[in-house]
Amino acid sequence: MSDFREAVESISEAQCSEHPGFSAAIACARCGTFTCAFCASSGAGLCFRCLHAAPELATCWARLAASLADGAALLLPSLFLGVLRCLALPGENAMQAPAIYIPAVFVLLVQANLIRGTGASFGKRLLGICVVRGDGRPAEVWRIVLLRNALPMALCGYCVWFGLVDALFLVGEERRCLHDWVAGTRVVKALGRGTRSLGGA
């Protein structure tokens, strides 16, 4: 208890590193620098410098793992229902039953809600990464859903080679797939659960 009291007193006696004359409210959650209430309220507990620092780009492996996790979350429930239907009704084509796609629709709705709140799908949240705009600001839902997901899938339907070309762009210095360039986005490491606070993959 005494350690906690000493920590609180040390913060209250310190001044903000970016705003001299302002008392510190908290220590930055990232670097530990004392920061005032103004900095803390605008950056989810981050100092001014950490808030506006360029976020670290996500690794290629993290992006691949996130894509696999998202694909599994979308496909496995429907495949499971299809297998159950085959076992129950052996003479019918399981994949032609509309009911087995209900879980996929539910997953898509959940994913859209996650993206709206954090800029990260289920898989990206698991890997600690998120999507932001090219300038670092939070990416809009329509930008992620339409330009990063729907458009590439539609193009892959017309040309299967598009998916390979799209992925090859990831090995560049900026680690941006072709759909990232089209959507004007990057995939970066999230600072924490409040990924929308990056302020601007």
Automatic annotation (TrEMBL):
UniProt subcellular location: Cell membrane
A Pfam match: RDD
GO cellular component terms given for this protein: plasma membrane
Taxonomy, superkingdom: Bacteria
Main location group: membrane
Keyword terms: Cell membrane, Membrane, Transmembrane, Transmembrane helix
UniProt membrane topology term: Multi-pass membrane protein
Chain ranges passing through the membrane: none
Xref: InterPro entries: Pra-immunoreactive (IPR051791), RDD (IPR010432)
Native source organism of the sequence: Stigmatella aurantiaca (strain DW4/3-1)
Stated name of the protein: RDD domain protein
Domain RDD stretches: 58-184
